[in-house]
Amino acid sequence: MSWIVANIRWIMILSGVLTSTMIYAAIAPQAALAVTFGETLEGPVAQIVVRNWGALITLIGGMLFYGAFNPLQRSLVLVVAGISKVVFVALIVSQGQRYLGHAGIAVVIDLVMVALFAWYLLAGKETTFRGRT
Question: Is-contact 124 75, C-beta < 8 A?
Answer without folding.
Answer: yes
